[in-house]
Write a structure and sequence with these properties.
- It is a single chain.
- With about 325 residues, the chain is of the alpha/beta class.
- It is built from 14 helices and twelve strands.
- Strands 5-4-3-6-7 form a five-stranded parallel β-sheet, with helices on both faces. Strands 10-9-8-11-12 form a five-stranded mixed β-sheet.
- Strand 8 and strand 9 form a beta hairpin.
- The chain is globular.
- The N and C termini lie far apart (about 50 Å).
Length: about 325
């Protein structure tokens, strides 16, 4: 991870990126305090692919966005908003789980950095906020916001794009209504499950998190595992709970399972069925597991629309 050492590095990188012009600024309140950001940013760098979709949905271009790590296209974008990224002329900014390359970010000469949000990128941005703020005004999206709607609302209000957000939500709500009418529900309730790798203990996704909540909007009844097992420790992100192989058949007892991958190497229903313990999970034993793409987990606006498409494709009449 590259650290900023001198003012010379900052100035030289910005000169290489192009001349800076005076901009009208607006004050925005964030969990990091008040920050002045451009009213009309022109060189936006986004450091979490999980929040980039909101920026595109609000009608803004992104100069560079960190490489996606789930549902990835060949050019490094998240599948759900890849077309928008290409139309915007966005470049892919490499990163790793240890941190960001600050010199590379500097080289883009951003007038606004948008960071934070869910997953590892949000954690890294929280740790590196001071360094990022030394490069450009940094809009930090609270990692504790409850769902994608709250993230969209925060970014829209910060950027003065409330009307664009309302229009985007109208499209989403119309799509929810269409999918609700188009599908036939399997037996309820439903559990939402993934495993990170072959042989690993599975995780369930609690009912108060975005994936089950979206499915509930179109008629599914998420099994209230979080309420039933309040003492089970959640992952640091708060949106999953790991269950041992031994306890899985008892805890994951709902008649219907939605199973999705964490990575391309994650086990599917065949691997679950072949496991002597996971194969005893009722939905697995009865053949009532529906495999769906990883876009249904930790999604943004475009990911939510893609999830609705996946639901309609899987359960359409």
């Amino acid at each position: 991870m590259i650290i900023l050492h001198t003012i010379v590095v900052v100035v030289s990188a910005l000169v290489l990126a192009g001349p800076l012009t005076a901009q009208e600024m607006r004050e925005v309140e964030t969990v990091k305090g008040s920050v002045s950001i451009p009213a009309e940013p022109e060189r936006i760098v986004v450091l979490n692919p999980a929040v980039a979709g909101y920026v595109y949905a609000l009608g803004l271009d992104i100069l560079a966005v960190t490489e996606s790590y789930r549902s990835v296209t060949k050019d490094g974008f998240t599948q759900a908003w890849a077309d928008e990224a290409r139309a915007s002329g966005s470049e892919v900014l490499p990163w790793n789980f240890e941190g960001y390359n600050f010199e590379q970010i500097l080289g883009y000469g951003p007038d606004l950095i948008i960071a934070g949000g869910t997953g590892r990128p949000g954690f890294l941005a929280n740790e590196a906020y001071d360094q990022l703020s030394a490069i450009a005004p940094t809009l930090f999206v609270d990692t504790a916001l409850p769902n994608w709607e709250a993230e969209l609302d925060f970014i829209a209000n910060a950027l003065g794009r409330e009307e664009e957000a309302e229009a985007a939500m109208e499209i989403y709500e119309q799509r929810v209504a269409e999918v609700r009418e188009a599908i036939t529900l399997p037996e309820q309730p439903t559990i939402f499950v993934y495993a990170t790798e072959p042989g690993a203990a599975p995780y369930f996704v609690p009912e108060d998190t975005p994936t089950p909540q979206l499915f509930a909007e179109v008629g599914f009844e998420p099994d209230p595992l979080g309420e039933r097992y309040p003492d089970f420790e959640r992952a640091s992100t708060g949106d999953s709970v790991q269950v041992s192989h031994e306890l899985a058949p008892e805890i994951l007892s709902a008649p219907t399972m939605i199973l999705f991958p964490w990575t391309p190497a994650s086990p599917g229903v065949e691997e679950f069925a072949a496991d002597p313990l996971l194969g005893r999970i009722p939905a697995v034993a009865d053949g009532d597991v529906y495999e769906m793409p990883d876009t249904i987990y930790r999604f943004d606006y475009y990911g939510a629309l893609a999830t609705l498409d996946a639901i309609e494709e899987t359960f359409g009449q």
